[in-house]
Amino acid sequence: MMMLMLLTLTASLAFAGEINKAALSAFQSEFVGATDVTWTATRDYYEVTFTLNDQKMFAFYSNGGEFMAVSHFISSVQLPHHLKKTLKRSLDKYWISDLFEIGNDDTTSYYVTLENSDSKIILRSSDGSNWSFYAKTDKE
After folding, report:
1. What is the mean pLDDT of each run of 10 residues along the chain (140 residues)?
2. Which CATH number fits domain 74-138: 2.30.29, 3.10.450, 3.40.50, 2.60.120?
3. How high is the pLDDT of residue 8?
4. What residues contact 87, with CB distance under 8 A and at least 6 apart?
């Protein structure tokens, strides 16, 4: 585990000098006041982890510097009413282990991970009115 963390840190630092100037400029103008900013470069995009208004957030930019999306964790109280209501029906055998909102200028989607002792189920709502199955994994 320690080795994986070290490799991740090393990879992040290796890319630190290669951040696209357009992405950096777009981030700085969009998220004024962001603190604890960390850039991670992948082959396909940049991920920026930061804190804004006491909330940890994640922004994504293309390698060309174009904004793709922003994401942050939320509580079930912050879900649109209909999603909250339909999710409660699923909770009799599960608990929420992860819930986040991801959006851009055009759309907002929600992802929730429901767990029990046997499995994890991920549901997605891309229209704000219904949940759809996204993925399932069995626990060992």
Report:
1. 39 55 92 93 91 95 92 92 84 88 91 93 87 90
2. 3.10.450
3. 41
4. 76, 79, 96, 112, 123, 131
